[in-house]
Write a structure and sequence with these properties.
about 675 residues; alpha+beta; five-stranded antiparallel β-sheet; about 25% strand
Amino acid sequence: MSGISGLVSNSLTGLQAAQEALQVTGNNIANVNTPGYSREQAIQSAQPPTLLGGLYLGNGTQVETVTRSYSSYLQSQVWSTTATASGANTLNTQLQPIVNLLAGTGSGLSTAINQFFGSGVAQVAANPSDIPSRQNLISQAQGLAQAMQGSARQLQDAASGVNQQIGQSITTINSLTQQIAQLNIQINNLSGSGQAPNTLLDQQNQLVTQLSAQVGINVLQQGNQVNVYTGNGQVLVAGNQSYALKTAPNSYDPTQIEVAYASSGAIISSGLQGGNLGGLLQFRSQVLQPAQNALGQIADGLAQAMNSQQAQGLNLSGTFGAAMFSTGNPQVLSSSSNTGSAQISASIVNTSGLTASDYLARFDGANWTVTNLSSKQVITSGSALPLSFDGVQLTQASGTPKNGDSFLIEPTRYGALNFQSLLTAPSAIAAASPYVSSAGSVQSGGVLANSNLGNLTLSAGSFTATSGSASVNLSNTLASPPVPLQLTLTSSGVSGGTVTFQVTSGSGATSGVVGSGNLTLGTSGTTLGINYPNTPPGGQWQVTLSGSTAASGDAFTLTPSGPGNGNNAQAMAALQTAKSLNGGTTSLEGAYGQLVSQVASQGSQAQSSLSAAAAVVQQASAAQQSVSGVNLDQEATNLIQYQQAYQAAAKAIQVGNSLFQSLIQAL
């Protein structure tokens, strides 16, 4: 087309192109605050020319397509950093209440432990016969039990909350993956014309961004469709198909919720990282369960130490003390896939050997192996049970195991949750040691008379955990109440010499002899031991006879302690700092300090990780928006540019019309 008609025709294409460009610009401005919107741009090109009179004359312009400003690399960075930041935020949100619970300055459990030892036990040690002091210790023990249970219950509530939030996250994930699959279908159908449905592509990216906030993902682009996988390759969306997830009980512990495929039931929790769901799983495995185990370890250690010390001493009735506390039993959970009938139980045999780990016992048809789940190391094995490890004994109660059967052992998980105070009567506190050592013999009428001529001494006595470890082990055991004993020298001597002695029970007659031995004068002495009949405490009470000069007939008496004796209560007070945990390397006070330090460190690290992740996702979003975001200044410039183009095309049409009018008038 040439001449005036060519002028008008070309100007009309310019008018149309400018109008469409203005529409695109207006759409950009309208969506400046729309989440996920990518800036669009009208791409113009010249239409093919026409050969007329030996000349190629142009035919105007056209808008070939409307593209969106998009970088797949920058968008993938947004998805990756969003998953990291969301996971860090969830971990920090879940962790801070645990930090406040265990490491807060006003922690009820920390206060209760200090008051139990510092106020309760210490007062009884100072005033063993004082009933108000004893009643205060009973109250402090009950307060400690309530604080221990309260802390453990809050941790248990946190575990229940994690289960609930995992379910909510799965519901959100399923909704998002279903929408992404549906958009894949729509985008595929609308892309047949050769033009990209930009709005749907933006919606697709926005849904993937929301999905990355729930769980860490990898995205594979296939044309305009996306396939979405979890970080370890588990498929969530493949083309037009979404793969729904569901909650499923843990194969060992049905109270613990896992993530599984809805169709097959296959559990995929262990491979999920990042996002809200990954943060929840990380919190449970790395913070919550270790804290529950560590708190249970402290509860088990405290109960065993106090109960053992109670059993070593005498209460106001003159009998050995009963247990002060009880704790939860170790849990043994069988796998839901077990085919055998074996019933396995566990018991704590040595709290000093306990750790804050869980264990997995597996039978391979011939042998048992026990693996520490924290270190992933096999710690013991054997062809049959019982097996002992880390303060725990594993026993086969009944049934027969089959090849592949496995059992999860949680030695301390419920120690604190079921921690209880058992004593109610002030008189039941065993504040006194079993014997008081005195020089001399008991005369008729119960009067103690000391007519010793030598310089021998008999120590106040102490407990040792090993039975039969004394130089002279008496043949009888400690009765409840203890029976008075008398040690009588049967020969004389001076330093360097050896003398003999015998120990009698009751009246001191020969028929009551319960032991005899000798002493080398001037040495560290000879220990005498009398075994405790029950476990706890086990072991024996030991005294030491020493000195450099002895006379035949010299005597010493071991009499049951009275209500004014507080030696055993003093030993109870020392338990707060005695190294009784982790193989004798950590005290109760130290173990709680380690738990507080660990949780506080995790809390601080979580906050730092969140700050860093938030900064990184902000940078990634800024970089992505620098390409895809709407710049209002640029759009204002475009408005002026396209407005001028529109006006120029309209003016050209006006000129063409004027020429037509002139031509018609000339005719």
